[in-house]
Specification:
eight-stranded parallel β-barrel, binds iron/sulfur cluster, 350 residues
Length: 350
């Protein structure tokens, strides 16, 4: 092992984090024994900083209408194979009630980009009503980038965390796969800083793995996290590493840079070393076997979705339809996943 890599791993072991460039050094130079050391360190840091608590959440899609045409997405505007749905107020609360009844207490509100269907005013009204109806979720939100004043409105309404993924940090790939307002790379990249400026306390970043070169996306994702720290004083609360999945009606797109299970595991472990206090999200895009394996190895995952649907109305209205934003591999209900992780020694938190 080079003395530089040894120095980086010693620094990581002290739990003070790594610079983005140090983190990718691990990818470039670690061999098998060093990777075992990375995984062990990730496990120790996770136990020290997060204990054995695992936070569960579920997405609630309230609209699949979208003005963008992202080539990989089932909601893209050119996809004529899916029924377009915008949940009415009562449908929205029916879905929320179903999640509540299943045991969920953390919900991620999601919608395609649309100036009316997914406006900040509409979402703020719904979030306010959730509490009034006794559905006191911890509310997270994942919609198109907004100006600061809209984030202020959402924070006053009760939104606790906003997530927005850059998809890929490779500008050329970004422009090739996106069409519509989303094509504005800088507006998207600046969104989480605006959310923090608008008073939202917790933000989440991520990269959609498979679009760009994973090493470059990983480096830029960590740099983005440091930019938030330097400009707004906080690191992101969570980082997500969704891998591209097939979507209903999307037959003309294959991930140009697929990411293997092994690389995904390494990215999560190095993230734990680089950002020891940032949560790592693992969703139902991944198979039950892989999710259980990652959790059993304690590489750093802190948040998991379970019992999820990726289409509007998928919990109480249109359960049997396959038309979600993307296909999922883990369709186990929340109770089954919670039981499984309890058997691994985790404490499920809702
Ligand atoms: S990824 Fe988001 S913005 Fe792009 S088409 Fe799908 S829902 Fe719309």
């Amino acid at each position: 092992m080079s003395s530089e890599l040894n120095h980086i791993l010693e620094k990581a072991g002290k739990g003070n984090g790594l610079l983005p460039e140090e983190a990718v050094e691990i990818f470039d130079h670690a061999s098998l024994p060093e990777w075992e050391r990375v995984f062990q360190t990730a496990c120790q840091l996770t136990r020290r900083n997060f204990g054995k608590e695992l936070i569960f959440f579920a997405p609630l899609y309230f609209s699949n209408r979208c003005v963008n045409d992202c080539r990989y997405c089932g909601f893209r505007r050119s996809n004529l194979e899916i029924a377009r749905r915008v949940l009415s107020e009562e449908e929205f609360f029916s879905e929320a009630q179903s999640l509540w009844d299943a045991g969920h207490r953390t919900v991620l509100l999601i919608a395609g980009e649309h100036p009316h269907d997914a406006s900040a005013a509409r979402i703020a009204s719904y979030v306010g009503q959730l509490r009034e109806r006794g559905l006191s979720f911890f509310v997270m939100l994942e919609i198109a980038p907004l100006p600061i004043r809209d984030y202020e409105l959402l924070r006053r309404a009760g939104v606790k965390q906003v997530l927005l993924f850059q998809e890929t940090y490779d500008r050329s790939v970004y422009e090739q796969v996106h069409d519509g307002p989303k094509r504005n790379y800088e507006w998207r990249r600046g969104a989480m800083a605006r959310a923090l400026q608008g008073g939202i306390k917790r933000v989440g970043l991520g990269a959609l793995l498979g679009l760009g070169d994973y090493r470059e996306d990983f480096l830029e994702l960590l740099r983005h996290a440091w930019q938030l720290r330097n400009s707004c004083g906080v690191f992101p609360s969570t980082l997500s590493f969704p891998r591209l999945r097939p979507a209903f009606g999307v037959t003309d797109f294959n991930p140009p840079h697929p990411v293997s299970d092994d690389t995904l595991r390494k990215m999560m472990a190095v993230t734990r070393l680089a950002l020891p206090f940032t949560g790592i999200v693992l969703t139902t895009r991944e198979s039950p076997e892989l999710r259980d394996y990652f959790l059993s190895r304690e590489i750093g995952v802190t948040h998991v979705s379970a019992g999820s649907s990726t289409q509007p109305g998928g919990y109480s209205l249109y359960k049997e339809e396959p038309e979600g934003q993307f296909s999922m591999l883990d369709s186990r209900p929340l109770a089954a996943v919670a039981k499984q992780v309890e058997e691994m020694g985790y404490t499920p938190a809702f």
